[in-house]
Design brief:
alpha/beta; 10 helices; 17 strands
Length: 367
């Protein structure tokens, strides 16, 4: 195809509210470097990193729950997931699905014309497991809320699947995050896993992927979404904030303790979550949508031999495994809604409201 010089794109102009996002029709099409591929974007899934970066929520001086509104103090020293700053203007959006339409001279030419999805961790490919210096697609580099985007050819995977592009765009961020959490916590068939926020993107992925590992899953979700969470395979579904979590677990599971807590919520309920862990239990966290500041009794940690895991950057094999799970039908997409690129502000408002079940996806073109 003939590559145009200009494209439609959603451009973030700075930290702040939704007004910092501009829908443009005249943005330059990026040119691939030697190891890059140029992707004609079909769909791009939304994720919390977009919202948190735009609003400046990652900054240490922000201590409240995520709301999507601008941080009160806009003089932020560490406003991004990596603890530093990013350059503006920036095109966000990590979960790209589309067609490779050009390849750099040193990129895999066999990708030309293939439908691909993106692995969003921008690694040093000479040392791909090193954590320092890793960036994120749509944060440290322009992402996929645009008609075209570029990324290193080692950051894409071809997928043999009958799923549509918008369905595929629900997977990469949420499911690699969830699988990374389960890998860190070494979840297996003998585990009883308590999953918070089970109706959201990462939470619903945690339910599916923990069941894939044959664990028993207790899911916390708003009662209006219990039936949908049960359909994902959760063995027990409890209210998002039970009045007495310990008693609720006992009445439903016949035990007072779980072996793993997989948490993306945090907030005021955090101490109660930790108390549900058995001796030698594991807690793993990859989010704090209800608030990052928690109260913790260190005696609970050392007297009960607990292990706490933070989980953000995942090893490269996690994405490769996810592609295999998709191709084998071992996980299912949860597409809550699609919005065209021009309706981006409405899409992000819907995403922030958390009334949906699953993922919200921006569609850029029909395929």
């Amino acid at each position: 195809m003939k590559i145009p010089r200009k494209m439609r794109a959603v451009v973030l102009t700075g930290h702040g509210g939704p007004d910092k996002l501009e829908v443009r029709n005249d943005w330059p099409v990026p040119e691939p470097g030697p190891r890059d591929v140029l992707i004609r974007v079909s769909a791009c899934g939304m994720n919390n990193t977009d919202v948190n970066t735009r609003s400046g929520w990652y900054a240490k001086q922000v201590t409240t729950a995520t709301t999507g509104e601008a941080a009160e103090d806009t003089n932020l020293e560490d406003p991004t997931w990596g603890g530093g700053s990013i350059a503006f203007p920036r095109i966000q959006g990590a979960d790209v699905v589309g067609e490779v339409v050009a390849c750099g001279a040193e990129a895999d030419q066999g990708l030309l014309g293939k439908r691909v999805m993106t692995d969003n961790w921008l690694r040093d490919w000479d040392d791909p497991t090193r954590l320092d210096g890793v960036g994120y697609f749509g944060s440290e580099q322009d992402g996929g809320y645009a008609e075209f985007t570029i990324i290193d050819h080692r950051n894409v995977g071809t997928v043999q699947s009958g799923l549509g592009d918008a369905e595929l765009a629900t997977f990469s961020c949420s499911y690699t995050t969830a699988e990374g959490m389960l890998e860190n916590a070494r979840v297996g068939s003998r585990d009883l896993v308590l999953v918070t926020g089970a109706s959201g993107g990462v939470g619903s992925a945690l339910v599916q992927l923990a069941k894939r590992r044959r664990a028993i899953v207790i899911a916390l979700a708003s009662e209006a979404k219990h039936a949908q969470v049960s359909e994902l395979g959760a063995d027990i579904v409890l209210p998002r904030s039970p009045e007495n979590l310990s008693e609720a677990i006992w009445e439903s599971a016949g035990t007072r303790k779980v072996t793993v807590v997989a948490d993306v919520v945090g907030g005021p309920a955090w101490p109660d979550l930790i108390e549900q862990l058995c001796r030698g239990g594991r807690y793993v966290c990859s989010g704090a949508i209800a608030g990052p500041m928690v109260s913790f009794d260190l005696r609970t940690l050392y007297l009960h031999d607990l292990t706490l895991f933070g989980s953000t950057i995942v090893p490269p094999y996690v994405f490769r495994n996810l592609v295999r799970y998709i191709e084998n039908g071992e996980v299912r997409p949860l597409l809550a809604a699609t919005y065209p690129l021009e309706d981006f502000h409405a899409a992000q408002a819907a995403f922030v409201s958390k009334k949906h079940f699953g993922n919200v996806v921006i569609t850029v073109r029909d395929r």
